[in-house]
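Check the record.
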Amino acid sequence: MSSTPNALKSARLANSPARRRPLVGLTPLIDVVFILLLFFMLASSFLDLHSIALDAPSRGGGQPTMEGALLVEVRTDGIRLGGQYVTPQGLARRVSARLEDNPDRRVLVRPAEGVSLQDAVAVLDRLTAAGARNLSMLGGDGPR
């Protein structure tokens, strides 16, 4: 008789429909994804207020003259202005003094090999703060 309750139990399980897991609807999940996307699009700012405008050189034009220009070299061991090492504060002071008589004087910046982009941009920021309006970056073959 002990087999009769087990037989009834197994017969009941065999005849009952299989339990189904409740399905999760995709519509609420998609709604949550779109709400998160909208939130991050509205919360982030794509404007870079600290950007530096650099003009690309024209291919057909001749090389601009370098006479009377100030040459600033950004090296791994420091900053040089006209062949002499200067501090960042001294660079700004000397450049602003030399630009007093000619504010449109050209300032050439030549980063050396191995100088990080951040260091070159920091020098460009200092020169801009010192009043330099005509800035050019030099590479291995001349102005860029």
User: Anything to note?
Assistant: The longest strand covers residues 70-75. The chain has a mean pLDDT of 78.
